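Check my protein:
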Amino acid sequence: MTHHLITVAGVTVDTRHWIGGARVASSETFTDVSPIDGGTIGEISRATATEAAAAVAAAKAAFPGWAATPRAERARILHAVADGVEKRIEDLAIVETTDNGALLRSHRRGVMPRVAHNFRFFADWLLELDHQDFETRGHTNHVSWDPAGPCVLITPWNAPLMLATWKVAPALAAGNTVVLKPAEWSPLTASLLADIAAEAGLPDGVLNVVQGYGSEIGDALTSHPDVRRISFTGSVPTARHIAASAAANLTPLSLELGGKSPLLVFADADLDLAADLAVEQYDNAGQVCLAATRVLVEEPVAEEFTRRFVDKATRLKQGDPRDESTDIGPTIHPRQLEKIDGFVRRALAAGARAVLGGHRGDGRYYAPTLLTDVAQDSEIVQEEVFGPVLTLQTFTTEDEAVTLANDTRFGLAATVATGDRERAERVTARLVAGTVWVNCFFVRDLRAPFGGSRHSGVGREGGTWSFDFYCDLKNTVTAPKGWKDHG
């Protein structure tokens, strides 16, 4: 039925759900619009509780067979998925850029290769996953990771495929089946992933994709008694709703909820490096959960740091993300643009000063912004904007810097710029954050734990931590006696 197929920059995408190894259409659709120019991309099948239930049923039916599949065979199929991703990097890159407005050059060179790496990493980690048996008064303890069951994975729009596969790859490697619900503002690459997985030989029902609005199908997925794990990346209010929905079945949750991360710049730092790190926070038009949007600078170097930052930031080119020379693309949706602009207008009305930007650009573009003269308890300092908006505050002592850095309800990440190793060790030990970068930013190794503290999330994923979440850990204790000789 060709009316379910759309062409995006020459790439064919099926707009139906993927359930039990087949394409399934809904009676209603929603419109997918490109943030680049506001043009309609296509009409996407809009799931209801019916499709959500069908996807969970398909995952439940496929679970026993996939869970029983030997580790080596699961790993082989996941490597085949990675092969498929690598063959279609250009297709995935242009579709994702069209759908969510992030830079095409980044998708080609970094994001889509990382998608393939996600599958390869967890396939290989699965084969190495083992604990040594240990003895207790002559009894043997053996720890095993048992597949948990169907998993519901709900993913955001700012890095749709990469963040989805951070979840999909370990869940499948662990022997679970998956229902993936992509964000309605950027659903297209999840549909392409379903095609790639099927071509790689992933059995029917092991990966299911349902598209639609979370408010319409979210409860049907997260409250379903057959769902054994829920992983969500998104906002704190939505996470609270999901947690309440999952509570009746005590379904384990992994939540990554964004942040309001600090960048601490000490007077002994390389100020050019520090300014580069600050400018890097405008990546993806500031639509990055890890972004260090609160710049805290030691008083003696604040003026010079600001001068260097503004000089670098004003060189950024904002425009069409398909253009190789573009540095900052559009905001994904008019609603998000309104939210960003509202934050800035209220901050300016409260006395903040715009050193850079502070206004909309054309279309869905928001000018890179730096605000000073902001109070620590103000909305612009305390709440996540999720746009190209930074604040700058100063401090005079190390203790003050740490106090300011930790003084929000979030704790996802922090970045420290300093030339003093001992200071770096002292400060990082006191910061409340799931990840701390020192003189660098956004270096991510899948062997390391990832997640946030406080309202930035619950749980950790990455390496063995992912398998701890996506599995039921079992300890089998065996006595040295009681055996019968069958020889």
